[in-house]
Amino acid sequence: MKHRRAIIVFTRVPVPGQTKTRLMPYFTPKQCERLHSCMLQDIKSECEKVEADVFVCYTPEDKEGKIRTIFGRRVHYFPQRGEDLGVRMHVAIEEVLKRGYTSCILFGTDIPELHSTDMDNAFRVLETKDIVFGPTKDGGYYLVGMKAPHKEVFEKQSYGHDSVMENTLTGLKKAGLRVGFVRTLSDVDRKEDVVAFRQKMRKNPKLQNTETGKYLMRTAKISIIIPIYNEETTIVAMKRQMQGLKDKCEVIFVDGGSTDRTLELLGNTFPVYHCSKGKAAQMNEGARHSQGDILCFLHCDSEIPVTFIPEIRYVMKDHEAGCFGIAFHSKNFFMWTCRVISNHRIKDRKVMFGDQGIMVTRELFFEAGMFAELPILEDYQFSLTLKEKGVRLGMARHRIYTSDRRFPEGTIPKLKLMWLMNRLRKMYRDGVPIEKIASLYKDVR
Q: Which is it for the CA torsion 121, 127, 128, 129, positive or negative?
């Protein structure tokens, strides 16, 4: 016995189909196994910072030695024994304490925010209390510790509901035991927990750097939603780009009633939904059918960078919304000016437009009311809504090349259109009826 304090890591062996099952089918069985392994690696790292001997109490039989591969030779191992969860925890604590340790804490492995300071604080609480708990926000507890085995903690108790902590404390009060607490944390064993943890990571770089954090960001599902209408000249190129991504993300096309060969050329490689014409209505329809954690709205005349998916993940690691910058293949000076102004507008005015590949978390998109179903400026209004909510926008390193089809030939006509677009946004801010604004903007298709 090296130390007088002991830690028990109470865990299942990470086996596909047997661990983190409440996350299925959001995650595949293999992904659940990998997530659990990442959590175990983080727990190991935190345990190594604490002056205590570490025991790993596991179930079922570790035939492949997965637990030992993660924790190594410096810790002690023994299997869980007992008919139910409470009995197994009591037996584990009793077995460790009888080896001569003065205090012992036990915790599960689905709390990715658990830190070595929480463990040290738990031992500190036990200097003056009989029992210590680490409560979870769902009414249970992730940590329990004691100096002597107290069966009362686990007797007549069922687990997996929001009254576990309350019921436990009632019994301990009757027994006259002194109870203390460490901070309340959230466990991660459902889809909603994963979503909430990703949101916390956007505000906490330390969580991003954990094995769990890195894995959860890598596995965030991305849905690309592309509204189409009479895109005969662009659909083949877009289809080709999306074919290279279909194994990495979900791709959805939403047709607004095309009358040319768009749908024939697109074929049946990707899901195609149908609704009335209008980018806002089409993008909203696609979002409702999507499964992604991150939604990316893309125009059909876009040419995306080869790093498209990694850059989306990079931006959304720190932000709830963002976009790419835009560029044009045209060498016209005023198209270059349009590019500079558009990209600067993201940082300066916190405004992004649809041809920049708007990306947003699923939760924020629906919380913001989706795209307002306007005949024009739906992307502008969405940016204004996010701005009112105080959402910071991120911007990818590379650009999306977009066609200049909405710009007429010649320098003067291009300048006139740029001026018109700026004027239309001003009219919108001033409350001019959207129908009047839309009548001033010519649909190029």
A: positive
pLDDT digits (tens, 9 = 90+) for 88-105: 999 999 999 999 999 999
pLDDT in tens, 101-134: 999 999 999 999 999 999 999 999 999 999 999 9
Structure tokens at 423: 């004027």
Q: Letter for the amino acid at 437?
A: I
Strands 358-361 and 321-327: antiparallel
Burial label for 69, CB within 10 Å (0-12, 13-18, 19+), is exposed
Instruction: Please report the pLDDT score of residue 359 as a whole number.
Output: 97
Distance of CA 40 to the CA centre of its chain: 20
Phi then psi dihedrals of residue 135, to 5 deg: -70, 155
- pTM for the predicted model, two decimal places: 0.87
- Report whether 27 contacts 10 (CB < 8 A): no
Question: Counting beta carbons within 10 angstroms of the beta carbon of residue 46, is it exposed (0 to 12), middle (13 to 18) or buried (19 or more)?
Answer: middle
Q: Write the pLDDT tens digit of every residue in 250-283.
A: 999 999 999 999 999 999 999 999 999 999 999 9
| DSSP track, 414-445 | HHHHHHHHHHHHHHHHTT--HHHHHHTS----
Distance between CA 218 and CA 380 in Å, rounded? Answer: 30
Q: Which two tokens stand for residue 386?
A: 């996010």
- Provide the pLDDT confidence category of residue 439 given band limits of 50, 70 and 90: confident
Running DSSP on this structure, what letter comes out for residue 400? Answer: E
Three-state secondary structure call for residue 273: strand
Q: What's the Cα-to-Cα distance from 410 to each of 298, 338, 418, rounded to whole Å?
A: 27, 15, 13
CA distances, 382 to each of 44, 284, 377 (Å): 44, 12, 9
- 324, 334 Cβ separation under 8 angstroms: no
The token duo for 344 is: 């600067």
